[in-house]
């Protein structure tokens, strides 16, 4: 009797299990919005540097029977610099993975902080790109964006993005340094000078670039003007070039903005704020391509990261890019 | 049926009692296992700069009899901030512990590290001599 009972219960449980397991999840096609609707994303990542662009994608759509989109606009909390614009093309990605633009309106008009595109094509849905060129006035501040779209049926939608903090950093790319020629680096000016020019601004020269084939471990170097002369062989400094710059070598730190390679690594304000190289030497020898060095000027006013984009032994030269943070 | 249950119960009690009475293995003040090994030596030595790249010009010379490590570093190496890396024999440990950069700049007073065997009874000091490539 007990055995039969046990069998029945087992069978019941098994059949119940089958019923539950075989149940298909119900799927229904999402219902389209009945009104004008919108959405937006920020496409760029990394720190927001003055002079660079922040890219957004703003999408808007209305059911075909309700009307058409008449205009789209973006209002920034701080007016963008020259070059800020809203695309008048809506993009789709073709079979080859290439974004193809379809014109939907007249080129954007920017009036102060507001950029507008007026549609001149019968458009029910579009995704427009917005490129905001970060102005000097936004340095160290937060900037927000309000995207909006209007439709022919009188509808209006808005979408807020931000706030985004604009970095305090400066950046300069692809400075050519040459041993014995353009070899005097100024962090204050974010520039490279030859000896004659350096002599006129000795208080701004922080580092000397030099290349020596022997010893082999000398190679490409960045040396502070007051470093031990053994690290400045054959160098006659212009009068008054006497700054003592701290420098600390780094490897595998290929900042995306500086290197423009595939590595998604970004140096941001916080890195400079937390950097401590007070005990670092005042020279860095044997620098290789894709290496870098953290730098702090003798007056403590600037911290910087110098990235070595490339080196050429035969011409005793290198290409460097710099990110700088001012205190 | 009842007999079976009683037997299983009794065996389980015996197993638990057996496990419960097993002695804990000894550990030292760092929570590391103290074993019976008496071997006490450095098998490899590496020296890295602040950029985590080697500063050695060639392999370090380790004399386990004399207790010395001789290593030549590149010209221009910042000796104040170096990361030494010791490979030790199984179960041994190092004193003092290397927790960050070590200052090797005082060449007249070379740094001494002591290897302690697995049984924690043998101690062997190693002196690290650094020379700079010219």
Write the layout of secondary structure elements.
The complex is a heterodimer of chains A (327) and B (134).
Chain A: H1 2-21, E1 37-42, E2 53-61, E3 69-76, E4 85-86, E5 89-93, E6 99-103, E7 109-111, E8 114-118, E9 125-133, E10 142-151, E11 156-165, E12 170-178, E13 184-186, E14 191-193, H2 195-200, E15 207-212, E16 219-223, E17 246-250, H3 256-259, H4 269-274, E18 283-287, E19 292-296, E20 302-312, E21 317-326
Antiparallel strand pairs in A: 1-2, 2-9, 3-8, 3-10, 4-9, 5-6, 7-8, 10-11, 12-21, 13-14, 13-15, 15-16, 16-18, 17-19, 19-20, 20-21
Chain B: H1 2-20, E1 42-48, E2 61-63, E3 68-73, E4 83-88, E5 93-95, E6 111-116, E7 123-132
Parallel strand pairs in B: 3-7
Antiparallel strand pairs in B: 1-4, 2-3, 5-6, 6-7
Overall description:
The complex is a heterodimer of chains A (327) and B (134). Chain A has 327 residues and is mainly β. Chain A is 11% helix and 41% strand. Chain A is built from four helices and 21 strands. In chain A, the strands form five sheets. A five-stranded antiparallel sheet of chain A has the order 7-8-3-10-11, with no helix packed on it. Chain A has a five-stranded antiparallel sheet with strand order 12-21-20-19-17. In chain A, a hairpin with a 5-residue loop joins strand 5 and strand 6. The longest helix of chain A has 20 residues, at 2-21. The model of chain A has no long low-confidence stretch (mean pLDDT 92). In chain B, the strands form two sheets. In chain B, strands 2-3-7-6-5 form a five-stranded mixed sheet, with no helix packed on it. A two-stranded antiparallel ribbon of chain B has the order 1-4. The mean pLDDT of chain B is 89. The longest helix of chain B is centred in the first third of the chain and has 19 residues, at 2-20. By secondary structure, chain B is α+β, with helices and mostly antiparallel strands. Chains A and B meet through strand 17 and strand 18 of A and loops of B.
């Amino acid at each position: 009797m007990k055995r039969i009972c046990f069998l029945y219960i087992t069978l019941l449980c098994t059949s119940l299990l089958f019923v539950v397991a075989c149940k298909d999840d119900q799927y229904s096609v999402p219902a389209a919005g009945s009104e004008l609707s919108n959405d937006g994303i920020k496409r760029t990542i990394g720190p927001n540097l003055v002079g660079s662009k922040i890219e957004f994608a703003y999408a808007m759509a209305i059911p075909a029977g309700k009307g058409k989109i008449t205009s789209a606009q973006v209002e920034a909390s701080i007016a963008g610099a020259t070059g800020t614009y809203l695309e008048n093309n809506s993009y789709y990605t073709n079979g080859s993975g290439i974004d193809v633009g379809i014109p939907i309106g007249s080129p954007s008009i920017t009036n102060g902080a507001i950029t507008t595109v007026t549609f001149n094509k019968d458009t029910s849905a579009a995704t427009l790109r917005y490129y905001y060129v970060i102005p000097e006035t936004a340095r160290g501040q937060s900037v927000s964006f309000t995207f909006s779209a209007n439709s022919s049926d009188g509808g209006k939608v808005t979408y807020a993005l931000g706030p985004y903090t604009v970095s305090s950093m400066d950046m300069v790319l692809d400075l050519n340094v040459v041993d014995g020629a353009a070899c005097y680096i100024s962090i204050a000016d974010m520039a490279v000078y030859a000896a004659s020019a350096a002599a006129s601004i000795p208080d701004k020269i922080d580092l000397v670039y030099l290349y020596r084939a022997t010893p082999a471990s000398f190679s490409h170097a960045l040396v502070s003007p007051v470093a031990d002369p053994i690290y400045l062989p054959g160098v006659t400094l212009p009068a008054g070039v006497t700054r003592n710059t701290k420098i600390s070598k780094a490897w595998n730190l290929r900042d995306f903005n500086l290197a423009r390679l595939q590595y998604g690594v970004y140096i941001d304000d916080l890195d400079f704020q937390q950097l401590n190289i007070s005990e670092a030497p005042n020279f860095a020898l044997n620098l290789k391509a894709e290496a870098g060095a953290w730098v702090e000027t003798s007056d403590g006013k600037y911290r910087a990261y110098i990235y070595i984009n490339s080196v050429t032994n035969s011409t005793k030269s290198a290409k460097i890019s710099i990110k700088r943070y001012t205190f | 049926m009842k007999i079976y249950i009683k037997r299983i119960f009794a065996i389980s009690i015996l197993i638990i009692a057996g496990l419960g009475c097993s002695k804990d293995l000894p550990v030292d003040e760092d929570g590391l296992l103290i074993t019976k090994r008496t071997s006490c030596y450095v098998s490899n030595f590496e020296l890295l700069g602040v950029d985590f790249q080697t500063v050695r010009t060639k392999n370090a010379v380790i004399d386990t009899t004399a207790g010395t490590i001789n290593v030549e570093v590149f010209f221009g190496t910042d000796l104040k901030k170096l990361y030494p890396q010791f490979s030790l024999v199984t179960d041994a440990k190092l004193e003092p512990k290397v927790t960050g950069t070590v200052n090797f700049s005082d060449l007249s007073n070379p740094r001494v590290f002591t290897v302690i065997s697995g049984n924690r009874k043998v101690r062997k000091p190693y002196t690290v001599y650094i020379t700079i490539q010219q």
